[in-house]
Design the sequence.
C-alpha cells in the first residue's frame, strides 16, 4: 500500500491482539501507515521485504524473542529507524541489560495520548510524521 508523501510507517510488534488492534486504530487515526506483527520473526520478514519502516514499537516479551534481541537483530539486518520498547515491567529492576541508548521506552499500560505523544517524539526530526488532517 503506497503511503502519502512524508507519512511515517510504524511497525507494531505485539503478541496481545487487543493491544495491536488499539495501537493500529489510534495510529491510523493520526494518519500513520501501520504494519503489524505478533512475533519477532514477522517483524524481521517485514524488513527483509524491503519495507521502509520509520518506527518499530516492540513489546519487550514476545513469544519467540525478547524485544531487546529483536532490536539487535533488526539493527544487524540494516534497520536504522527509531525503535521503542513497550513494557509493563520495571526495566531497571528486571532487565538483565539496560535499554540501548537509541531505544525509547513506552511503559505499559499506555493511554491513547501517551502512545500518540511517544510516536510523535520518536519521529521528531526524521522528516516523517502523520499527514495533516483533511480540511473540511
Sequence:
Amino acid at each position: 500500500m503506497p503511503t502519502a508523501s512524508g507519512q511515517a510507517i510504524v511497525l507494531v510488534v505485539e503478541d496481545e491482539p487487543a493491544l495491536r488492534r488499539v495501537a493500529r486504530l489510534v495510529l491510523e487515526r493520526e494518519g500513520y501507515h501501520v504494519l503489524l506483527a505478533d512475533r519477532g520473526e514477522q517483524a524481521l520478514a517485514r524488513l527483509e521485504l524491503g519495507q521502509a519502516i520509520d518506527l518499530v514499537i516492540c513489546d519487550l516479551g514476545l513469544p519467540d524473542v525478547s524485544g531487546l534481541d529483536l532490536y539487535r537483530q533488526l539493527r544487524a539486518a540494516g534497520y536504522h529507524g527509531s525503535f521503542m520498547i513497550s513494557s509493563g515491567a520495571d526495566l531497571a529492576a528486571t532487565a538483565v541489560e539496560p535499554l540501548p541508548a537509541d531505544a525509547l521506552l513506552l511503559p505499559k499500560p499506555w493511554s491513547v495520548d501517551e502512545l500518540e505523544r511517544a510516536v510523535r517524539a520518536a519521529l521528531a526530526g526524521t522528516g516523517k510524521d502523520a499527514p495533516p488532517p483533511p480540511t473540511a
In short: The longest helix spans residues 17-29.
